[in-house]
Specification:
Rossmann fold, 13 helices, Dna Ligase, domain 1, about 425 residues, nine-stranded antiparallel β-sheet, five-stranded parallel β-sheet, binds adenosine monophosphate, alpha+beta, binds glycine
Length: about 425
């Protein structure tokens, strides 16, 4: 007899829509609940719109009442707040790290000290909690530097500073003016790394790991990596900069020592380890950051590219007996183009009617994941409700064909003021 599992996914964004879409295809799923989920997920799962992702009590209660077999946690905030620990204390299986292990993302100084202790390559750094000492350091050091708020700042707590004067004003904003609240009271100051960025994903049960794939995100708002930093305007997988040789280096120098190091330090890492990397000209990887959850929007192309059943991997990682030889199959390529609201990442209007979704999804290689939508007027269709609205994702035999399909789908979708980058995946097409 097959397994039949009741699965709860926590979160409501495009990343969670992609996870829910993938998990819903598993023959092992008996019931799939999402807290809070979104209207767009209603066709795949039972959503609990009143159970917020950060309402730990309500989630634990829901998991208990529904006799959930496995909880998959999407966002970092509930992880940092200890949701996994709370659920495990109730005897519920969880895919997601403990609060202690989530410090890899939640505290830059924790992550930097961890990497130093375990010999994992990363930018040189110093940590400060005193403003005048930090200022003295950037003045003495001279040149370029990267100033980062120590705590969680929704990806926005990083200042790339060309001069000591720029670094000084970033330090004042973070440490004295409270721009990122408590997250910025202490900072790390890093050396500025050069190279090509990529992210890499591995799933761990605390001891063993299974690799997923590399992807590349596009963080800036405008074509050509110009404009402000956003949560991500698109992503694609694979990332050609991570060829076999580079991947081997990433596994040996980063993923393996990170998983072993967390176990050795008494915080075994259970969940997905998202490694943000800078790959230098010689193909050597340096860690920019660790995240303790799936990337958004990278998960959208990863789920669309992945063949086979993901649920057994998530479950066996949560149980602590992952088969390290379990191989996931991968399609050749996938590309996700984000359609955002006018004005994003600053303020933006809501409630704009979205047209053309079914035309876009008429291509069987296209899936439209919703990041910020709500039911339209009179409950018909969808309208915009967020900064990032849709992640239009397509699979292809090459990045080029996936990209062509994604943009054809984007062109059939319409809402007033929609903002799209036209160069998602373009870097993968430049001969290296
Ligand atoms: P993070 O929030 O740490 O991912 O940083 C956001 C972005 O800032 C990264 O995607 C990089 O583009 C850039 N960045 C962060 N740290 C460094 C560094 N030490 N050197 C160069 N670029 C960096
Ligand atoms: N796309 C980057 C992130 O999820 O942090």
């Amino acid at each position: 007899m097959g397994v039949s599992l009741k699965v709860l996914v926590v979160g409501s964004g495009g990343r969670e829509h992609a996870l829910v879409w993938k998990i819903a295809q598993s023959p092992e799923v008996e019931a799939l609940i999402v807290a809070p989920g979104s209207a767009a997920m209603n066709s795949l799962a039972e959503c609990r719109p009143h159970v917020g992702a950060n309402d730990l009590d309500a989630i634990v209660e829901l998991a208990r009442v529904e006799k959930i077999d496995l909880v998959v946690i999407g966002p970092e905030d509930p992880l940092a707040a200890g949701l996994s620990d709370r659920l495990r204390a109730e005897g519920i299986l969880v895919f997601g790290p403990s609060a202690a292990a989530a410090q890899l993302e939640g505290s830059k100084s924790f992550a930097k000290a961890f990497m130093a202790r375990h010999g994992i390559p990363t930018a040189g750094y110093r940590a400060f909690s005193d403003l005048s000492e930090a200022i003295e350091y950037v003045r003495e050091r001279g040149g370029r530097s990267v100033v980062k708020a120590d705590g969680l700042a929704a990806g926005k707590g990083v200042a790339m500073c060309e001069t000591p004067a720029e670094a000084e004003s970033a330090l004042r904003e973070m440490m004295a003016e409270g721009r990122f609240g408590d997250a910025g009271h202490s900072v790390v100051i890093e050396e500025w790394l050069m190279g090509e960025e990529a992210s890499y994903y591995a799933i761990s049960d605390g001891e063993r790991f299974v690799t997923l794939a590399a992807a590349q995100d596009h963080k800036r708002a405008l074509d050509g990596d110009r404009g402000e930093n956003t949560g991500g305007m698109g992503a694609y997988s694979p990332a050609p900069v991570v060829d076999q040789d580079v991947e081997q280096r990433v596994l040996e120098r980063v993923v393996r020592p990170a998983i072993a190091g967390m176990a050795a330090d008494g915080h075994p890492y259970v969940g997905v380890l998202f490694v943000g990397l800078m790959i230098d000209d010689s193909g050597d990887p340096y860690v920019i950051e660790f995240n303790v959850r799936f990337g958004d929007p990278e998960t959208q192309p990863l789920m669309v590219r992945m063949d086979g059943d993901f649920l057994p991997i998530l479950k066996s990682a949560a149980e602590g007996h992952l088969d390290p030889d379990a191989k996931l199959g991968w399609g050749e390529a996938a590309v996700c183009v984000v359609m955002a609201s006018e004005g994003y990442p600053r303020s933006y209007p809501k409630g704009k009617e979205i047209r053309g979704l079914s035309e876009a999804e008429a291509d069987e290689n296209v899936v439209v994941f919703h990041a910020g939508t709500q039911p339209g007027a009179q409950g018909k269709g969808f309208e915009t409700s967020g900064g990032r609205v849709l992640g239009v994702t397509a699979r292809g035999e090459t990045v080029q064909s996936a990209r062509d399909r994604a943009y054809a789908a984007v062109d059939s979708i319409e809402f007033s003021g929609s903002q799209v980058r036209r160069d998602i995946g373009a870097r993968a097409l430049i001969p290296r």
